[in-house]
User: Fold Probable periplasmic serine endoprotease DegP-like from Microvirga mediterraneensis.
Amino acid sequence: MNTATNALEPSKTALPQRPLRRRLAASCFAVFTIVATAAVPLPVLARSTPESFADLAAEVTPAVVNISASTTVEARNRTLPQLPPGTPFEDLFEEFFNRRGQGGGGGDSAPSRPRSSNSLGSGFVIDPSGIVVTNNHVIGDANDISVIFPDGTRLKAEIVGKDSKVDLAVLKVKSDKPLKAVKFGDSESIRPGDWVMAIGNPFGLGGSVTAGIVSARGRNIESGPYDNYIQTDASINKGNSGGPLFNMNGEVIGINTAILSPTGGSVGIGFAVPASTAVPVIDQLRQFGETRRGWLGVRIQNVDDATAEALNLGTARGALIAGIDDKGPAKPAGLEVGDVIVRFDGKEVKDSRDLPRIVASSPVGKAVDVAIVRKGQEMTKQVTLGRLEDTEKQASLQQPSTETPTATRQALGLNMSGMTDELRRRFSLKDDLKGVVITRVDPNSNASDKRIQAGEVIVEVNQEPVTSPADVTKKIDDLKSQGRKSALLLVANAQGEVRFVALSIE
Assistant:
């Protein structure tokens, strides 16, 4: 044997001899381990990671623009100090204000001078004819808007339409040649972990490309009634607003709108309006110059676990109808207070936040099927949608008095009394409001935790009307005998606005 072979052999003097069968087994195990290790496939992430974003960026960047918006306002008049004639300071003050461009002298009001307020943002072309999309807050009330293209071309823009609730604006520019445009993609199919790329105008630097992943979907940041943001860690900063968020096919799946940052700069938490929310609004703005949202005419609240148990829903889901507009389309369609909407026009309503967004994106005048659960039974009603008017007003809440008259019954941490003229005056209750008046709430009760207050009125218990405290206690006793864990109360405030509250009866 040569030297190399001897080096691989175990020493016969250092190690005891093993039977051949055991040595073969050990050798086979070693070979198997090596082969198995070599056969393990590489992680999926390593195979799907893009080598570069350069080709994608080069393809779509010509359609991404900078937005310059300026607003000219009249400066407030400034009045020079009233000074005695001949005072040594008269000439000094006059010279000071003249230097600052305020003009005037003595005690006369200085003439105003227009001031200009400028903002910078981003946008993108969606139609070669010159249709540009951006955020509403980028242009605000600007009276001079320019769209600046990557090649330096600067075109004046006019507003086609804008919507503050989804924070979108559509602009129109005139070009002597077709413009590079990008198209929207399917934002509903993206998943947390998918790669995305943002292009915009951060801090006025011009076209900048950043990349990251989708961090989450369906984010509610309390910025409006239709919040449904895509969260991404692709760097988004001041000036990126209105710019596109691309998938790896070069399709716009979001419009970069907001960031969460304690510093004012990117900390990896950015939000984009999903294409599924933006496209219907953009289409309406292009067609009508305004939004025309569907309207159902109901007031809703969320369904928690206790409410779901009380309504025999199984799991907490849907939107619970707590009020119906007498002039809205829901009433003639047969929807009732206490119904839980679980599907709307074939779309699942997972919680109460889903419904306004789905309804608003539905065409005005469309007849839609609404699946509801009523007293444990699912049924379908057909509703012809009205139009949501942005000028709708909501009645303000009036705080009831804290005085507590003598109670006649107690249950669930509530002191209750039948409706009387004296109680109606004391708590300023609406004349046609009927039910059982709550005169005191135990601060250590579940009712207090659910924010029930003295002066409110119990209208129903488990969707059955009550007119006396005895009605309430009897229904609660019935629920206990059925083994139920909670009671569903329909509670009205002084103005008659109602909400459902599920209270534990254990």
User: Anything to note?
Assistant: Residues 76-112 form one domain.
